Amino acid sequence: MRVFAVSDVHLDYEENRLWLSSLSDLDYRSDVLILAGDISDEIKLIEWCFISLQSKFLKVFFVPGNHDLWVNRNQGMTSFDKFHFLMRLAKEHQICTEAYHHGPLSIVPLLGWYDFSFGLPSEQLLQTWVDFRACQWPDTMTAADITAHFLNLNQSLLSVQNDVVISFSHFVPRIDLMPDYIPARYRYVYPVLGSAGLDKQARQLHARRHLHVYGHSHVNRGVTVENIEYINNAFGYPSEQNISRKQLLCIYEQ
């Protein structure tokens, strides 16, 4: 059994849909896929993605990303409503959103959001970041409250221990995973990349070997920090040819 990872497939783009459709119907029948968020904000595309991938892989794991929780095309829904809807939709299509154990391997999904632990948002970010308009949260909740809500949902998973643990989140668990070569003009988005609380939770999992898959940044890389192997394999937007691999990545073989 091989474990593949990808995130940020953004199926709103035809090129990305064609890539997903072209994945072999036979080559991955004994393998699992970690899909680390950002399929689309369109429910029909998310469901199509679930059906397509479930038919190609032995098992598919999923956590929602920020784009998945946009509700500007889902009138009457809050982003919490959409989160719960997507969890039910995943279950309906046999997509795994819970911890999974296969012999010496455990796969653990970690929900999250961003809480500005990576920096305070600038006026530029407040004006341009689409989540601030496309997501709908209770008026009384701050970004830190939203993050705390999702992190709290992970609590029951944090006692997992095994020889190999692969945890995964959509959001970036630590800001030092961003490479030094990122130009300063793009770093204004750092406050909305993730939460240091995610990394604290990941480090409560115990393993001889621990891998953590994340997405959201669209900057593909693999780096080991304090004994955790961090992997980002974002498919990204069609224009992002230099920072995305544009293919599945096998991260483990059992």
Please explain how this structure is put together:
By secondary structure, this protein is of the alpha/beta class. The protein has a single domain (about 1-254), classed as 4-Layer Sandwich (Purple Acid Phosphatase, chain A, domain 2), CATH 3.60.21. Helix content is about 25%, strand content about 20%. It has seven helices and eleven strands. The protein has helices spanning about 15-20, 45-55, 80-90, 125-130, 130-135, 145-155, 195-200, and strands spanning about 1-5, 30-35, 60, 95, 100, 105-110, 160-170, 205-215, 220-225, 230, 250-254. Strands 5-6-7-8-10-9 form a six-stranded mixed sheet, with no helix packed on it. The N and C termini lie close together (about 5 Å).
Core attributes:
single chain; 254 residues; alpha/beta; Purple Acid Phosphatase, chain A, domain 2; 7 helices; 26% helix
Amino-to-carboxy terminus distance: 5 Å
Strand content: 15-25%
Give the overall average pLDDT.
96
What is the molecular shape? globular
Alpha-beta content class: alpha/beta
Query: How would you characterize the largest beta sheet?
Result: 6 strands, mixed
